[in-house]
Design brief:
Layout: H1 2-25, H2 55-59, H3 74-93, H4 99-119, H5 124-145, H6 149-171, H7 178-194, H8 196-219, H9 232-258
Helix pairs in contact: 1-3, 1-4, 3-4, 4-5, 4-9, 5-7, 6-7, 7-8, 7-9, 8-9
């Protein structure tokens, strides 16, 4: 297990470096593969030795080697954060055939959360292909495991969360964007694979986190009733917590409710 976790963490560092490119270029409709990584200030290409996750930023002291422009601290934080998410998912899922699916979900979740925070948009170019990738990876896991019950529940979870968010968007379109609806279906796939407790917990936690943060921003006068706060990051965070502990949270709630 230790080697699996460490291996996933190292993979997360590399994936996190690529996610920085995705988060910067996708909202600008730029290719994520061409041109190679370069300084947005002076246009100088990033040398291979300066493209090592986290370490290069530390060695360069957060500045471009060519022009001295500051490099945002978010770059190493995204790389380290992706490594941490991959390591935690490896601990949660273990050496199971569905692990690649959840690592992909972790990477996509980080990219979408950051893009939504930056531009208040969940790009179709990331969300829609995630349905196909999730179904292929989880379908492959079902074939390897010889049990299609989890895959069926994943599909039902997708329909359930998509339908719930679609209803909310239809009833109150000003409070729910259709990007959130499409993301809900993807999250429902991954939560449904694990169980119905995860589906319910993940859906509930997204609204709970959004309400708490939104309320805190209003109290601090950083937002008002009409302020647009991106909801995607809360959906993703809620789903991540549910993946890790959704079943336990559901049991705790039922014990408190019935006790």
């Amino acid at each position: 297990m230790l080697f699996l976790v460490l291996g996933c963490a190292v993979l997360g560092l590399a994936v996190g470096s690529f996610l920085n490119v995705v988060v910067w270029r996708v909202p600008r409709d730029e290719s994520v593969v061409s041109p190679p990584s370069h300084c947005p200030a002076c246009g100088a290409a990033v040398r291979p030795r300066d493209n090592v996750p986290v370490l290069s930023w530390l060695r360069l002291r957060g500045r471009c080697r060519d022009c001295g422009e500051r490099i945002s601290v978010r770059y190493p934080l995204v790389e380290a954060g992706t490594a941490a998410v991959f390591a935690v998912l490896a601990l949660r899922i273990g050496a199971e055939p569905e692990l690649p699916a959840y690592l992909y979900a972790g990477a996509v979740g980080i990219a979408l959360a950051l893009i939504d925070l930056d531009v208040k948009r969940l790009p179709n170019v990331i969300v829609l292909p995630s349905y196909v990738v999730a179904l292929v990876l989880l379908g492959g896991a079902a074939v390897v495991g010889g049990d299609f019950g989890d895959l069926l529940r994943a599909a039902l979870g997708m329909v359930a969360l998509f339908g719930f968010y679609f209803t909310l968007a239809f009833v109150y379109p000003a409070g729910m964007g259709f990007g959130d609806v499409k993301l809900a279906g993807v999250l429902g796939l991954y939560l449904g694979w694990l169980g119905w407790a995860e589906v319910v917990s993940g859906g509930f936690l997204g609204f709970l986190l959004g309400g708490v943060v939104g309320g805190a921003l209003m109290v601090a006068r950083r937002a008002g009733r009409k302020s647009q706060i991106p909801f995607g990051p809360f959906m993703i965070a809620g789903a991540f917590i549910a993946v890790l502990a959704g079943d336990a949270l559901a049991d705790l709630y039922l014990d408190r409710a019935l006790g």
